[in-house]
Amino acid sequence: MLGLGEHSRKIYISALVIFAFLVGLGFSFFVISFYPSAQENTYYRPVSPESTEGISLLGSMLKKYHLTLEECNELMGTLERENKILREERNLVFNPECKTGKLAEFSEENIRDAMDPGIVRNLAVSVVSPNSENPVISLHRYVYENVKYVDDPRGEEYIATPCETLLTGGGDCEDHAILLASMLESVGIDAKIVWLKNTHTLVGIETSEEINQEIEELQGCGNPLWLDHDGTKLLLADTSFAPCPGQVENIYVERSEEEWGWKDGYEVVVFDV
User: Fold this and answer.
1) How many domains does the chain have?
2) In the chain, where does DSSP find H-type helix?
3) Which of 87, 100, 148, 245 is a plausible cystine mate for 237, CB 3.0–4.6 Å?
């Protein structure tokens, strides 16, 4: 440093040191003000919108529907069970083992060939397991609510398999019957096909008559019909018509207060599946 004496040089160096210290102090203040401290950073985790989605949903439900936490948990459990059923359906209908139906005459052999309890087993279990009610009622309701009545092609008889009926979401009376009977058989409940020859198809279910009380407690259901077949009483079920088992359209039956019978002209055939 030309032209500076010893004393001036010391003053100049001191000024540089002070200036550097002030710059460092200012930078430290900036870091502390705008970033978490080292200790805070140890526990700091960025919060993404996705991670708060469940909390926001819970808060919204409690506020909107005036629910208690217990009621909200119960509702969330119901939604999860429904989602599980939907997942089971997706696994079922896209299963490569899911075979399709065929154009064929209505016969005991062709109905048996279409039956497939194994492929609907997972779905049937997921339907009945969350409920305390009789499995017959749960499965009947499921088919009734999820499969619409759709006629066969004009002038043809098309017999669909259970997984095909679930995939399309529709079918006629024998398609309904094959699906329900397959689901019942898959959880150990004996089912038979009840055929009003050339007219209509139902399911006959071998179950305890104690189910009558449960059926009669359901809204719009009552006085369930049972069919005597070779000394065995079968609960009639028609998911193409009624939301609960034991109900049969009046065009097929005649009723009195304590008895019922098929209307004249109907030939009834019952066979195992």
Assistant:
1) 1
2) 6-34, 38-43, 53-65, 69-93, 108-114, 121-128, 135-146, 162-168, 173-186, 211-216
3) 245
Give the Cα separation of 75 and 66 in Å (integer).
Answer: 13
Residues 6 or more apart whose CB falls under 8 angstroms from that of 42 comprise: none
Task: Please tell me whether residue 272 adopts helix, strand or coil conformation.
Answer: strand
Please give the pLDDT value at position 86.
64
> Is residue 81 a part of any domain in this protein?
no
Q: What is the pLDDT of residues 134-152, one digit of tens each?
A: 999 999 999 999 999 999 9
206 close to 232: Cβ distance less than 8 angstroms: yes
Do residues 11 and 18 make contact, with C-beta atoms less than 8 angstroms apart? no
pTM of model > 0.70? no
Q: Which residue in 85, 75, 205 sits closest to 142, CA to CA?
A: 85
pLDDT tens-digit readout, 59-74: 665 566 666 777 777 7
Q: Containing domain of residue 150, as a range?
A: 99-272
Residue 183 sits in a domain whose CATH number is 3.10.620
